[in-house]
User: Fold this.
Amino acid sequence: MRLSRRDILYIFIAAIGLLSGLLYVKNSCCDVVYSDYIRLVDEYLPDVMDPGKFFVPDILTRVPAAFLARAVNVELFGFSVTFDRLLTLSGFALCSAALALYSRKKGIGLFGFAALIFILYSLNKWEIYINGSAWAHVVSFGLFFSYYYLFDGYARGDMREALPILCVLPFVILLFAGEYIASFSAIALFFAALLVFFPKAFSEGRSSLESKGQRARGGLVFLCLLIALLLYLISRSFAQWEHAGSTELGFSEFFLTDPLFIPSFFVKSFAGVIVGGEAIGTLTASFGDSGREVFTLLSGLLVIGSYVTAIYIYLRERMYRETVFPMMLLLSGGFNHVLVTLSRWIFEDSSYGLSSRYAAQFSIGVLGIFIIFFLFLKKKRSAYIKGSLSILIILFLAGNCYTCYQEIKKMPYREQNYEAMAEAMKNHEAYGEEELARILEWHKDPETMLHAIEILEDNGLNVFKDKN
Assistant:
């Protein structure tokens, strides 16, 4: 297949996004075990090939793909956190590949595609970049994007050869997704059900015979998705969950105690996709706590309004006859906001949803919004409507530009922080337990931390590689 000059430009834009991620990782951190990696070391090292640690009842909650990656990392790279960070970037690259293929096929221009790539790689998700332990989740997002893209083509009848992949991919996703299988399954099952019961809704001009065949094949897709979800739920039933620092109150009891907290949590979780959580603090520093609260809530409401607007346009223009990919992204992002709210309100911090660790899954919805807006702007509509949508897009991009600017300024300080971690790890005997835990961002029992350091030192892993 020969690439056109325009194809090369799309590839170039995607490559620029990946390069920006690589440069950020290179200049903001160094290779040292800390935080959740301490738990991973204590639980799975040094014998990463121990079948007893793999064949456990709740295996699907532990991300099976991580076992293989961890073994490769230990054997070939001495348990490098940088290795995991590169795997994270591979997940973003997979997302950008799906966006590039879709944008090229649907005629989204170079500016529109560049905006999508900018949102995808925006530094509002800085914590995802440098906390390599989340790599499997980002790879799973890339697999979600791939599934949505293939489903979109298949539902329209353009990619009938995608059926076997659509049946197998949910089981591959099980190896990477962990709890994120919930949002993926909810969206994919919904659209698969529509394909079964309303096949003509996805494409005009189908004969009744074609619709019956599509209905039967859609049923197969639905069944595979359902089996994969059930396998995860069965495995999850054996898991034991621990949330340090969480409230002991039940949902109903907590809600009655503070009825506005959970709605506030939900609305504020949307704000971080315009301006990152830390950047909001910088931007509103002169406004005081109340000013920051108002700004965050208004930003969140603006994003929610963008969701509603995009859904309205999608249904009003009957875009579902042309494409389902952007709506799958939009609903996936929105569902992630619901999941984070329902699972993280227990920490009693209404700004918890602004954490950078959730920006990647929330940005999925923004990408869906942008695609719907771009597809609509291609049509002949009033200048007022086009101007309003363009302003919304510019606000999103401006907020993310500000976030990236603030994060770039912080890169040297983040790197210094990691260098201090590495130094403390190498000379751990000179530190008290509390001070060492503070430096390594470990908030649980010190015995686990000290045991993890012992494992690394005895086996010459991570910062102790030079000792062997």
